[in-house]
TrEMBL record:
Keywords: Methyltransferase, Transferase. GO terms for biological process: methylation; RNA processing. The lineage of its organism: Bacteria, Bacillati, Actinomycetota, Actinomycetes, Kitasatosporales. The keyword RNA-binding does not apply. Residues 126-255 form the tRNA/rRNA methyltransferase SpoU type domain. It comes from the Bacteria. This is TrmH family RNA methyltransferase. The keyword Secreted does not apply. It comes from Streptomyces xanthii. InterPro entries: Alpha/beta_knot_MTases, rRNA_Methyltransferase, SpoU_MeTrfase, tRNA_m1G_MTases_N. GO terms for molecular function: RNA binding; RNA methyltransferase activity.
Length: 271
């Protein structure tokens, strides 16, 4: 085929692929997790997420970004990514990410996530957020947990740790750790270290690999129920007139402290 007819046919095939992708998006949009932007999609693919549809306003630019920054996911991206016009993608997402990329991923099954959390041979801690309020904080904590190779992040209370704003804050790293909401009574087994400014100085302790590391809510700290379940109260060094650190910052310091003495913590030199 050549000339005008060939061009039309190519446009038709392209339009068909675009329509199919938009149809798949609409089918999955209700229950799937929105991956907002190139980096969230990159992390999700890297950590084995099921991604039924991925869209870009400039496919070539997104693939060039992958070749440059994430060659390991480039083939998976090339196989999935469908180019759609800017206005089509804007109609599907709450706010178009600057990279012009969006995708949908299936949530890992509950049984799979709970299985990872309840493993008795865990070699890295589980982070527990006791009734967190701020969605951005929860996302930042999931990103920290993924970076440190934590076994999972559990939230208690009403916040949904799979809320789109949490997923955005977590940069697609929900798929690199196990994320679930549980009641205090359902927490995995293991020694529970609860972080509180009134506790013992963390610098005098080694946090075990199977620890649960629990943090209180931004507004009111640890709940009485969580304190009851705690085996140890631990504090982060802080001068007297300062009342507390930000929640995600506290998680970062605590995981860093754990990493300084655990053979299972990731290495910084990646050598
Ligand atoms: C913003 S703080 C909560 C402040 C809250 N107004 C309170 O009464 O505790 C959120 C959580 O971060 C942790 N945190 C903050 N600063 C800490 C510190 N110096 N030592 C230990 N944990 C700390 C605690 O788990 C705390 O519940």
């Amino acid at each position: 085929m050549s000339g005008a007819n060939g061009t039309q046919a190519a446009r038709g095939a392209h339009g068909g692929r675009e329509q199919d992708a938009v149809r798949v998006w609409r089918q999955h949009a209700q229950e799937a997790v929105l991956l907002d932007g190139f980096h969230a999609l990159k992390h999700a693919l890297r950590f084995g997420a099921d991604v039924p549809v991925a869209l870009a306003v400039d496919r070539a630019a997104a693939l060039a970004l992958a070749a440059d920054l994430a060659p390991d996911v480039a083939p998976g991206l090339a196989a999935r990514l469908v180019e759609v016009p800017d206005d089509v993608l804007r109609a599907l997402v709450p706010r178009l990410h600057p990279t012009g990329v969006a995708a949908l991923a299936g949530r890992p099954a509950v049984a799979e996530r709970l299985g990872a959390l309840h493993r008795t041979d865990r070699t890295t801690p589980v982070v527990v957020l006791d009734q967190p309020r701020n969605l951005g904080n929860a996302g930042a904590v999931i990103r920290l947990a993924a970076g440190y190779g934590a076994a999972g992040v559990v939230t208690t209370g009403s916040l949904d740790p799979w809320h789109p704003t949490v997923v955005r804050g977590g940069a697609g790293l929900h798929f690199a750790t196990a994320v679930a909401r549980l009641d205090v009574g359902e927490l995995p087994a293991g020694p529970l270290y609860a972080l509180d400014p009134e506790g013992a100085d963390i610098r005098g302790l080694e946090l075990p690999d199977d620890a649960l590391l629990a943090f209180g809510s931004e507004r009111s700290g640890l709940t009485p129920e969580l304190r009851e379940r705690a085996d140890h109260l631990v504090s982060l060094p802080m001068r007297p007139q300062v009342s507390s650190y930000n929640l995600a910052t506290s998680v970062g310091m605590t995981l860093f402290h754990w990493s300084t003495h655990s053979p299972h913590a990731p290495r910084a030199d990646r050598g």
